[in-house]
């Protein structure tokens, strides 16, 4: 099998999504050991991360890979070295896969054009976050009883879509899985071209529940990416776009990629409620990312190109 970068899920077929999730399940059940023995995985994280960085590292180690970690602090990036020169250096040092997180949209794609090693996009600014969407599909299909159970389910994607690379990856992933998506966000937190997505926009979580939403996928209010005031106040935002206990009465499930602003996107004690898949999403990160690493490096036996 050849190597391949994972930059987005735009060109990933439904069948391929299913195969990656099947591989992740096999990894979770134990067939992971030694799949990357003798390979070197480089984790280049030039933006903060807890779950993504830790789960990629655990995933690579479970596969038996050697792991090198690099951040902006302490690397030549802090001396002004460019992203391209940095990834070319990692490539020359023999990395078999480069996992990249970077604040600029398009950075993973740029990096992949200069390396022989595959690049796995671990989040590029407001661009894409494909492994997050894969682990969300994994956690949700597990909760619902299988990948085919996703088809026809109603999911509301709630909050700061404008600044969310997660939304840009999750929307195509959920669409390919056959889910019915609506957006719940103020106009100021939707991209200008959101109309072209053809998705209904609803004014509140209450309205989404009234229209039968079964999954409430909430997004973090990404204040570090906001250039001006986009909401009147956090309290006002939480009133319309925060998931509260009353929204769970009909059996809806709650998701969030983390980190959660408790009491803003989700009411504090709902974050770890039985209806919340937040811990399941985090746990899914390890098998899904080991599956992605084995596909990216060509070590996996089978997954359609
Ligand atoms: C997300 C990210 O960094 O894009 N978190 C994550 O990877 N689990 C979402 C966010 O920061 O809001």
TrEMBL record:
GO cellular component: cytosol
Residues at which L-aspartate binds: 79, 165, 220
The Aspartate/ornithine carbamoyltransferase Asp/Orn-binding domain, residue ranges: 152-294
EC number: 2.1.3.2
Example GO BP: 'de novo' pyrimidine nucleobase biosynthetic process
GO MF, one annotated term: amino acid binding
Positions with a binding annotation for carbamoyl phosphate: 51-52, 101, 129, 132, 258-259
Domain Aspartate/ornithine carbamoyltransferase carbamoyl-P binding: 4-140
Pfam family, one: OTCace
Reactions the enzyme catalyzes: carbamoyl phosphate + L-aspartate = N-carbamoyl-L-aspartate + phosphate + H(+)
Annotated keywords: Pyrimidine biosynthesis, Transferase
Protein family per UniProt: Belongs to the aspartate/ornithine carbamoyltransferase superfamily. ATCase family.
Subunit structure, as described in the record: Heterododecamer (2C3:3R2) of six catalytic PyrB chains organized as two trimers (C3), and six regulatory PyrI chains organized as three dimers (R2).
PANTHER family recorded: ASPARTATE CARBAMOYLTRANSFERASE, ORNITHINE CARBAMOYLTRANSFERASE, MITOCHONDRIAL
Role description: Catalyzes the condensation of carbamoyl phosphate and aspartate to form carbamoyl aspartate and inorganic phosphate, the committed step in the de novo pyrimidine nucleotide biosynthesis pathway.
The protein's name in its UniProt record: Aspartate carbamoyltransferase
């Amino acid at each position: 099998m050849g190597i391949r970068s994972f930059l987005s899920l735009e060109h990933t077929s439904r069948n391929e999504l299913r195969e990656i999730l099947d591989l992740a399940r096999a990894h979770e059940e134990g067939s992971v050991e030694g799949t990357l023995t003798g390979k070197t995985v480089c984790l280049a994280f030039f933006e903060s991360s807890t779950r993504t960085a830790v789960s990629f590292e655990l995933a690579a180690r479970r596969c038996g890979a050697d792991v090198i970690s690099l951040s902006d602090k302490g690397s030549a990036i802090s001396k002004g070295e460019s992203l391209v020169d940095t990834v070319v250096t990692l490539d020359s040092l023999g990395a078999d896969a480069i996992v990249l997180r970077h604040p600029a949209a398009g950075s993973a794609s740029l990096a992949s054009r200069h390396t022989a090693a595959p690049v796995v996009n671990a989040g590029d600014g407001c661009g894409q976050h494909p492994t997050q969407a894969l682990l969300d599909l994994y956690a949700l299909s597990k909760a619902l009883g299988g990948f085919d159970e996703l088809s026809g389910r109603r999911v509301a994607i709630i909050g700061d879509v404008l600044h969310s690379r997660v939304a840009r990856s999750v929307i195509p992933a959920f669409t390919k899985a056959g889910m019915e998506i609506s957006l719940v966000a103020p106009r100021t937190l939707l991209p200008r071209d959101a109309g072209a997505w053809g998705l209904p926009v609803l004014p509140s979580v209450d309205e989404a529940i009234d229209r039968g939403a079964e999954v409430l996928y909430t997004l973090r209010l990404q204040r570090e990416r906001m250039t001006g005031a986009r909401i009147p106040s956090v309290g006002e935002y939480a009133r319309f776009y925060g998931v509260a206990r009353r929204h769970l009465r009909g059996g809806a499930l709650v998701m969030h990629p983390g980190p959660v602003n408790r009491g803003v996107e989700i009411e504090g004690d709902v974050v770890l409620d039985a209806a919340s898949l937040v811990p399941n999403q985090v746990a899914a990160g390890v098998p899904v990312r080991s599956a992605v690493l084995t596909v990216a490096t060509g070590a996996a036996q089978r997954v359609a190109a």
